[in-house]
Design brief:
- By secondary structure, the chain is an all-alpha fold.
- The protein has a single domain, classed as Growth Hormone, Chain: A (Up-down Bundle), CATH 1.20.1250.20.
- Helices cover 76% and strands 1% of the residues.
- The protein is built from 21 helices and two strands.
- Strands 1-2 form a two-stranded antiparallel ribbon.
- The longest helix has 35 residues.
């Protein structure tokens, strides 16, 4: 019946598509240069895992605060203005790392990250529906999966910078022959010198990032970007909220997304603590994180290809069950086998964010912008669960096993919830 083959990205929107897709890499970089900072701040600022995990609380809390204001701003003005405001906030937050390192205040770093993620919330709330709108609705989920595939490329680069330029340069991570940290045994003056050095090492990539973001701002400001057709700029937020809350598939999609983001952040943040329990240094453990991200990236491209042939809802359910299996191995297998299971989990996480996003937003029409904000707010899962996992790790041992192993029960529960969502959307599809 169809005369023309549906293209995922048409020639007319190719340049805007590439520009907006590059933003996916830009926030991926910020996400994954920040994850290993939890372990770095824990040592250099001499704090508990739970307190150091406030880095994630500030980072993902910024999303929760700004997602809905961002959606209302985009609805009132335009996608392009939303992206430009997002890039401005991103640059300001990144450049604030300079004074934060100068004053050596953990709280100042948290505020900088909080502002930086105001920018990321604007970018994600705007870029995701913008990509969905750049063509036929039938190819929208595939188009978003394609754009999202560039997110882990930025993430990999962030991890690479973290492992090669930050973690290996930290004097606070030097160990004795037995593999124990030397930092805690030093006197106050030596610690102060190392702290100043290490905070400057942490600061520099963020400051450089600030200037890269300013460059992107200039390019997008002058680029010709597609405008929404028949855009309705009137804000009827309450009507939209009421419709969205009544929409079962959307509501469950938001819940699934909260748990997915939590699972992803926990699996990547605490891989360092998991490896540390096996006597592996932070810099070496970060290499395992890079392997996990490479698997994630490869699997994202494979799953985008598979979606041509397999319903995305079926794939989501299968991948969630896979995540449950690898997490069970992470908890119960002690030693390197458990670490390999934790790394393998990334293969199953790859398609989850854009697929849950696409399924939840299907057919929302006028409510899409606000619906997208709800799904970006769901990133708050990354703020709430890591400090909880950090508190479990601080216990040392739980039920006769290392607490770090037991702590991965939280991502396991998350995958169970995603599997239920996938299974229920399948049933909705048939009913």
């Amino acid at each position: 019946m169809e005369k023309t083959k549906k293209v995922v990205v048409s020639k007319e929107v190719l340049v805007p598509f590439i520009l907006i897709t590059s933003l996916f890499a830009l926030w991926g970089f910020a996400n994954d240069i920040t994850n290993p900072m939890v372990a770095a701040f824990k040592t250099v600022m001499e704090m508990s895992n739970a307190k150091a995990a406030l880095i994630q609380f500030a980072f993902y809390g910024g999303y929760a605060t700004m997602a809905i204001p961002a959606a209302l701003f985009v609805k009132k003005f335009s996608y392009k203005k939303g992206i430009l405001l997002g890039l401005t906030l991103y640059a300001v937050g990144a450049l604030l790392f300079y004074p934060a390192a100068r004053f050596e205040m953990f709280g100042f770093f948290l505020v900088s990250l909080y502002i930086l993620t105001f920018g990321l919330a604007f970018l994600e709330t705007t870029a995701n529906p913008y990509i969905l709108s750049m063509g036929d609705e039938k190819t929208a989920t595939r188009r978003l999966n394609l754009a999202q595939a560039f997110n882990p490329i930025g993430s990999l680069f962030g991890m690479f910078v973290a492992s090669k330029f930050i973690l290996t340069s930290l004097d606070s991570d030097l160990r004795d022959k037995a593999g124990n940290l030397i930092f805690s045994t030093l006197d106050a003056a030596e610690k102060a010198t190392i702290r100043t050095h290490d905070l400057a090492i942490i600061r520099d990539p963020y400051v450089i990032l600030g200037f890269v973001v300013i460059l992107m701002f200039v390019i997008i400001a002058f680029a010709k970007m597609p405008v929404r057709k028949d855009a309705d700029h009137t804000i009827r937020a309450m009507d939209s909220f009421k419709r969205l809350i009544k929409n079962v598939k959307y509501r469950e999609g938001v819940i699934a997304q909260v748990f997915y983001v939590a699972a992803q952040i926990m699996s990547w943040t605490f891989i360092i603590q998991y490896a540390d329990n096996l006597g592996i240094s932070k810099a070496a453990a970060q290499n395992y994180n890079i392997i996990a991200m490479s698997i994630f990236l490869t699997s994202r491209f494979i799953s985008t290809f598979l979606m041509k042939y397999v319903n995305s809802k079926i794939l989501l359910t299968i991948f969630a069950v896979g995540g449950m299996l690898t997490m069970t191995g992470t908890i119960f297998i002690q030693g390197m086998g458990g670490l390999y299971c934790l790394i393998a989990t990334s293969a199953f996480m790859s398609l989850m964010f854009p697929t849950i996003y696409g399924i939840a937003l299907e057919g929302l029409k006028d409510d899409t912008t606000l619906g997208a904000a709800g799904l970006v707010m769901a990133i708050v899962g990354g703020a709430l669960m890591p400090p909880l996992q950090g508190s479990i790790i601080d216990l040392g041992t739980v039920a006769g096993m290392p607490a770090v192993n037991f702590s991965f029960i939280l991502p396991l529960i998350s995958f169970i919830i995603i599997a239920i969502f996938g299974y229920r959307t399948l049933n909705h599809a048939h009913s």
